[in-house]
Amino acid sequence: MKAAVITGPSTPVAYGDFAEPVLGDGHELVELAAAGIHPVVRSLATGAHYGSSGVWPLIPGIDAVARTANGDLVYTGYVSAPYGTLAERMSVPAAMRLPLPAGADPAQIAGGLNPGLSSWLPLTARAAEVDSLGTVLILGATGAAGQLAVQNAAALGADRVIGVGRNRSALEHVAALGATTVALTGSREADAAAMTDALDSHAPSLVLDFVWGGTAEAAFTALSRKGLGEDDADISYVEIGSLAGADAAVPASMLRSRRIRISGSGAGSSSVADIMAQLPAYMGMIADGRVSVQTRSFPLSQVADAWEASTTSGTRVVVVPD
Prior knowledge:
CATH architecture of the largest domain: 3-Layer(aba) Sandwich
Number of strands: 15
Shape: elongated
Order of helices and strands: EEEHEEEEHEHEHEHEHEHEHEHE
Number of domains: 2
Distance between the termini: 13 Å
CATH superfamily of the largest domain: NAD(P)-binding Rossmann-like Domain
Number of helices: 9
CATH class of the largest domain: Alpha Beta
CATH topology of the largest domain: Rossmann fold
Structural class: alpha/beta
């Protein structure tokens, strides 16, 4: 069959031939309708992600909208390495698929579910813990996942959303979505001061961090406080991505002076059951337009161009059949 093929950790993706998938027990053969090239897809394919199989050649891709043998459109994934979803056909667990809502655009679902759920899961978890989400601070708000996080926070009733990012033109779109924006300069001191000003002495209930690295360190400075009095805040800081660096120094004084807990959200820390439970509702939000997903589609035969285009922030690239 035809597929996107990567032969090694530093080799480019190419359109080529790959062996047909083998059906295991409880699996079914489905055909590609649309599959997103997410940042996690790229990092898994190069071996940089903690979940990488380390086996090449491989077909990249973690999830897809696919067509079953009887013609139904379903959202699915969990394809066993070295296979992925950027292929004409894939073998998927029959139990791990969900029908698309009526009228849903396959490209929108394929492009939006992965980045959208990355914030939806911690947002809904936090909303269940507090009376009001209050202020939500989003680091890396200009990417596709960050823009969906802005919309998700608003949909769940956040009083105020602050979107932080480097791309000034993309920040204009983030502002149009209703967020207060902070433009990063690359200076940790200046970025911390800008976040402090935007927070205006109101501690966030939730921080969603898609970038980590130096941006996280600037945020830690902005979140720090002085004095020995009891902190009346309750901050949940959730690390989701690491586009700005794999490491960040966490100041001891912040941990001791603030009521703050830092955790991560991703494959491994989020249960499959929790993810599957949230999928139908979030597919519905995409299908009926409550959240808007910016996508750009390429045919499978042009996957090399699609792979290059997927490095652009803000728009999720989707591969569809020729």
